[in-house]
Structure to design on (676 residues):
């Protein structure tokens, strides 16, 4: 007999245990029960367990303690009803049902091996059961080919040779597998391009230089320049008058060619400022205003700075885009914030209003095409529901004959039985009889006299068919006498006009004085590394005559500084040459191949509950990826039964053979002493 402790009552009760393993003194185990009997007599004799079966019972099934249990069929196993005898616990199986058979799903892709640039990949398709997951191996299709992807060419840029270093031709490689597709060839160094460095004459205090040579491409010095001694100064004088804030003085300038050395002497006090008020103005919504300030009218110096007054909107709100609620639909409107000064929109919020539940019924009346029937309906404009049943009435017309001067008519009147509907009248016009037309001749207008258009009237009833209208006098046909623009040195004429019909002058032309030149400063342009500059000059903005000619200032030439970028695992190294003059010109050379990754692999083994995998880590840049994934092993429990004693409970211990994980179950109460 097998017992189980009921912890709520602290009592033991007998249970069905199909199979148990009992440990003998020598370490071996005895399996209890067989395929049919569950009630056993188990004795411990001579250091081992001995089981005896009671086979004499007339079985009683489906009792309150052990009701029949229906075991459902699986894909491959029959279902049945499981019965346990309430007396001897014999286990009986009956009422078998057929196995369900597999429910095969559509084929799915498995065991995929990706294609590379040059090698095909492959995969299998397999069919699995939707219920139990078993594979139908007869339907597996193996080694379905995935075509090779082909290379993805990337251009390896052309590297220009320099005076002393070689270059490379353009090539290409595959961006996916790095295979070289077009190899780069070495281009010989160019050699120096010799340029003469002109001799520099000595100045008053500066030495000169003898002629030398350098390379125009890389700036390497080929022939050094020698030093020539200074000549000494020869001064001339120039008086500078005092200004509002600056003293006057005499400037002494050396007249030797190319020197320009100066110094000042004989100082005169500054004159002081002539003050002028700079008017302020108020701000607007989006533009700032200014306070009043002052400046000097002679030198334009700011004496009292004008301060900025901030801009700002004046806000107000109103409703827009309002949609009224109906009986069944909600409405909405937008609350918009505007500036009351400039009308700019500052914000917009949308709000919803609930449906009113009140119908908007309107009555409509529809005539048939011949107007012999009229149908009245009263329908809600919002939900389309009828307030009353539609009503159709048949109508006969009343005819009024047409004359030459008056149209006739057919009048249809529909009167409805439902008082909610209003009597409807439809009038169909019968055209007048045609007039007997007489033409009223047109009168042509003249320059200063009106005319008449052609008209018509009926000779029978004198009705005007086409009314004659007054045509305005033509007036003068004005021809513009074009203006002649004055130039800087010649007078012009204002625009005038005259009549092309009568020749009368309408607007007389007036003489316009010559304009005189309008000087505009042509700003100086600084020379750059590659472009020459210009000195300041001036010209007339109207006729473009040059007033002060600009002279050319020679280009400076580049001054390159090199910066080396070292290669990484995935990117090339290179040297960048940038001009130190601040022009931003750069070029790149001296490319060095990427180092490539150097991976170190660490294997993490699978356990009972966690998957295994291999981790690959680059020892240079720490780039990392994992592969070779192995599923978790799952527990492999081995069961050992510890039998109850007089004072200790019995139980079954389950120990995983892989990881040592342990749990216990099937507790049996201690037997208690059997004293004699």
């Amino acid at each position: 007999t097998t017992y189980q402790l009921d912890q709520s009552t602290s009592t033991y009760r007998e249970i069905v245990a199909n199979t148990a393993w009992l440990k003998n003194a020598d370490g071996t185990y005895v399996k209890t029960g067989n395929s049919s009997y569950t009630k056993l007599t188990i004795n411990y004799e001579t250091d081992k367990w001995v089981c005896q079966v009671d086979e004499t019972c007339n079985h009683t099934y489906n009792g309150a303690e052990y009701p029949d249990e229906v075991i459902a069929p699986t894909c491959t196993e029959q279902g049945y009803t499981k019965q346990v005898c309430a007396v001897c616990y014999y286990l009986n199986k009956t009422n078998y049902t057929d196995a369900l058979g597999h429910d095969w799903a559509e084929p799915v892709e498995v065991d995929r091996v990706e294609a590379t640039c040059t090698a095909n990949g492959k995969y299998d398709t397999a069919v699995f059961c939707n219920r139990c997951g078993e594979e139908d191996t007869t339907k597996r299709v193996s080694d379905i080919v995935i075509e090779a992807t082909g290379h993805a060419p990337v251009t390896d840029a052309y590297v220009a040779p320099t005076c002393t270093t070689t270059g490379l031709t353009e090539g290409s490689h595959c961006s996916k597998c790095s295979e070289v597709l077009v190899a780069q060839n070495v281009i010989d160094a160019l050699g120096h391009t010799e340029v003469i460095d002109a001799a520099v004459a000595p100045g008053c205090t500066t030495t000169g230089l003898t002629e030398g040579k350098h390379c125009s491409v890389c700036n390497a010095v080929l022939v050094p320049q020698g030093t020539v001694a200074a000549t000494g100064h020869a001064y001339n004088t120039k008086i500078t008058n005092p200004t509002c804030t600056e003293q006057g003085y005499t400037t002494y300038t050396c007249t030797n060619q190319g020197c320009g050395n100066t110094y000042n002497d004989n100082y005169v006090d500054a004159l002081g400022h002539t003050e002028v008020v700079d008017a302020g103005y108020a701000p607007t919504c989006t533009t700032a205003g200014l306070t009043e300030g002052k400046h000097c009218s002679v030198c334009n110096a700011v004496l009292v700075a004008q301060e900025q007054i901030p801009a700002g909107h004046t806000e107000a709100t109103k409703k827009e885009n309002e949609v009224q609620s109906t009986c069944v639909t909600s409405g909405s409107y937008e609350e918009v914030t505007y500036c009351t000064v400039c009308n700019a929109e500052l914000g917009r919020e949308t709000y919803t209003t609930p449906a009113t539940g009140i119908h908007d019924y309107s009555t409509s009346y529809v005539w048939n095409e011949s107007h012999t029937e009229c149908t009245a309906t009263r329908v809600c404009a919002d939900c389309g529901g009828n307030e009353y049943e539609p009503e159709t009435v048949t109508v006969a017309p009343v005819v009024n004959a047409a004359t030459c001067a008056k149209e006739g008519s057919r009048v249809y009147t529909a009167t409805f039985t439902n008082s909610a509907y209003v009597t409807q009248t439809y009038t169909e016009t019968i055209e007048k009889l045609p007039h007997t037309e007489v033409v009223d001749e047109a009168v042509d207008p003249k320059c200063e006299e009106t005319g008449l258009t052609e008209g018509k009237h009926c000779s029978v009833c004198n009705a005007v068919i086409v009314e004659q209208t007054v045509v305005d006098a033509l007036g003068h046909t004005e021809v513009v006498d074009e203006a002649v623009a004055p130039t800087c040195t010649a007078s012009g004429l204002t625009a005038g006009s005259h009549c092309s019909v009568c020749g009368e002058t309408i607007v007389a032309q007036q003489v316009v004085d010559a304009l005189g030149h309008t000087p505009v400063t042509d700003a100086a342009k600084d020379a750059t590394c590659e472009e020459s500059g210009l000195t300041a000059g001036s010209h007339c903005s109207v006729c473009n005559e040059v007033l002060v000619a600009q002279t050319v200032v020679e280009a400076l030439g580049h001054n390159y500084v090199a910066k080396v970028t070292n290669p990484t695992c995935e990117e090339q190294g290179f040297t960048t040459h940038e001009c130190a003059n601040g022009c931003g010109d750069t070029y790149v050379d001296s490319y060095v191949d990427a180092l490539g990754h150097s991976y170190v692999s660490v294997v993490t083994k699978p356990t009972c509950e966690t998957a295994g995998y291999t981790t690959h880590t680059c020892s240079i840049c720490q780039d990392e990826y994992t592969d070779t994934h192995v599923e978790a092993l799952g527990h492999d429990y081995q069961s050992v039964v510890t039998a109850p004693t007089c004072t200790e409970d019995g139980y079954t211990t389950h120990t995983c053979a892989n990881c040592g994980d342990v749990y216990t179950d099937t507790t049996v109460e201690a037997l208690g002493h059997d004293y004699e």
